[in-house]
Amino acid sequence: MHLRLAPALALAVALHGSGCSDAGTVDPGGPQAGSGDGGAGGDGGGGPGEIAGVGGGSGLSTDVRVIITADNAYGFGYGTGDKLLNYFGGIENLLADEIFSCPVGHGPESYTVPARSADAGHYLYIVTYADMLTTQGVIGQFFREGAEPVFTGDGAWEVCATGEDYDLGSHGPTLETINQHIARCNGGDTDPQTTSAGWVTTEVSDRGHVVFGEANDTARDVPQPGNEFPVVCGIDEGARWMWYEWNPTRDTGSPFMWPGGSGNVIRDFLIFRLGAEFVPEPPR
């Protein structure tokens, strides 16, 4: 039986799925947990959008239903432009079945995030890192009644490549460490040889960019550029794999495939974020 690391939750979270690799609930006061208070932070006031991933202070009373997985590790949370206010983190996938396979809870994890947690600030954050083997990426969906769904690989996602590497088994960065890096990303003054030197978007630049990969609708036997991953259980076809392109002049290979070597070539861990103002409100 493989034991998966349990995520630390800022507030009570109902987790669905079964099997020994399903995510578990731990004490909200644990080392990865945030305050969960939407009133804290630099720009935590009401945001203009009502989307599944980000409440933006909109007052929506519905919970957010999340299914997410990564090759290999991830956490997610909600916050302001300055910091995470809560963090659901600590999942590390060592085996392919833990990333892709059915049922949900054996492969990808399912969460129900209470409305108050999702309304903390108006940014959705995903933190992720990978091992140095084969492939790397993150894919997920965020659904909320009365709001547009949010998918990875769709919309105005930003990423900051921190260059601070974590191995599987390390439990990843703490909330405090993530917030320190968000501040550095906002400052944009880190080393461009080992980081993205601030936030980058899908626009190609010499500092790298967000890259959207294949949709969750293609089978795979052997990883190859453009078809790196098999279909993930339980995630909508509207979701796409997402990662950081560290090589802006790439003419071969794929940012979703490990290029070889022993250094932190891919510059992870990565912090992705999506602001509510970049997603249109649903029709009323």
Automatic annotation (TrEMBL):
<feature type="compositionally biased region" description="Gly residues">
    <location>
        <begin position="31"/>
        <end position="54"/>
    </location>
</feature>
<feature type="region of interest" description="Disordered">
    <location>
        <begin position="23"/>
        <end position="54"/>
    </location>
</feature>
<keyword id="KW-0732">Signal</keyword>
<protein>
    <recommendedName>
        <fullName>Secreted protein</fullName>
    </recommendedName>
</protein>
<feature type="signal peptide">
    <location>
        <begin position="1"/>
        <end position="23"/>
    </location>
</feature>
